[in-house]
Each structure stands twice: as structure tokens, then as C-alpha cells.
């Protein structure tokens, strides 16, 4: 039996059309603008924001509001800022604005966590690569250079430790 023939008519929709495995449903072109456009005009510039146009309790505007915490970009503070961090900032700002537009109470948090390893590497790297003169001349560039250099040493050590563990497991 044809699924389209089973569709009960509704004034908001046109009769559906079967197209292969697809079932196309369209809004009635006359009715939708008569319903939607006056609402949009009434809301004016607040259209699209959930807590406008009389949907909230006027005596307690915060009643029933959902809450969200959005973590914005948390760049690695031991490295230079780059485009990947900017992308994360744009995405988190978009998500935050989206939730705010739907009437949520939104708190944005920039959590500078996971920095212990980076500063530990800089502290260890300072012993081998640090220079008070270079630090005084250009602190950010010098600390970045120390971090990059000690990170290369650390990566080599990580590879060697993993290889030693693998050898130990093979002999067990």
C-alpha cells in the first residue's frame, strides 16, 4: 500500500510525494506565512530568542531556565597561541551564544588546566638550555625555545622507556 495515500490531510502541509525511497513533505505555501510572519514581526529583533515574546513567567523571568557551563578554549599556556586555539574559541563562543539565544543561563569558563607537565619540562629544560640573558631580552621566545628543546629530549626518552618496557614484557 502506498504510504502517501495513508497520509491524512492537514491544513499546514501539502499532500506528500513519494520519490523512490524518500517521502517528501512540504508546508502549505499559503498558511505558513500567515502564521509565522506575524509572530516574527511581533518579536521584531528578538525573534529566535527563546525568552522573548511572552514565553517566560513575567513575575519570575529566571524560573525554569536551564543552565549550561561552556568551557572556552584552554590553550597550552606553555606554548605559543595558534590557529587551532582560535578555532576552539570561535566554536565555544558560537555554542555559548546559541544556548543564550534559547534562554539558558550560560557561564563561560576558561580552565587553564593540564599545565603541570609543560612547566615541569620548562623547569628541567632550564637547567640545560636556559639563559638569564636571553630570558631578560625576550622572555616568551626564550621559554618557548627551552620548552621545544627539552620536549625533543623528553620524546626520545619516552620512546626509549617504551622500548625497554616492551623488551621486558617479551622476556616475561
Automatic annotation (TrEMBL):
<keyword id="KW-0436">Ligase</keyword>
<comment type="similarity">
    <text>Belongs to the class-I aminoacyl-tRNA synthetase family.</text>
</comment>
<feature type="domain" description="Arginyl-tRNA synthetase catalytic core">
    <location>
        <begin position="63"/>
        <end position="166"/>
    </location>
</feature>
<dbReference type="Pfam" id="PF00750">
    <property type="entry name" value="tRNA-synt_1d"/>
</dbReference>
<dbReference type="InterPro" id="IPR001278">
    <property type="entry name" value="Arg-tRNA-ligase"/>
</dbReference>
<keyword id="KW-0547">Nucleotide-binding</keyword>
<keyword id="KW-0648">Protein biosynthesis</keyword>
<dbReference type="InterPro" id="IPR014729">
    <property type="entry name" value="Rossmann-like_a/b/a_fold"/>
</dbReference>
<protein>
    <recommendedName>
        <fullName>Arginyl-tRNA synthetase</fullName>
    </recommendedName>
</protein>
<keyword id="KW-0067">ATP-binding</keyword>
<keyword id="KW-0030">Aminoacyl-tRNA synthetase</keyword>
<dbReference type="InterPro" id="IPR001412">
    <property type="entry name" value="aa-tRNA-synth_I_CS"/>
</dbReference>
<dbReference type="InterPro" id="IPR035684">
    <property type="entry name" value="ArgRS_core"/>
</dbReference>
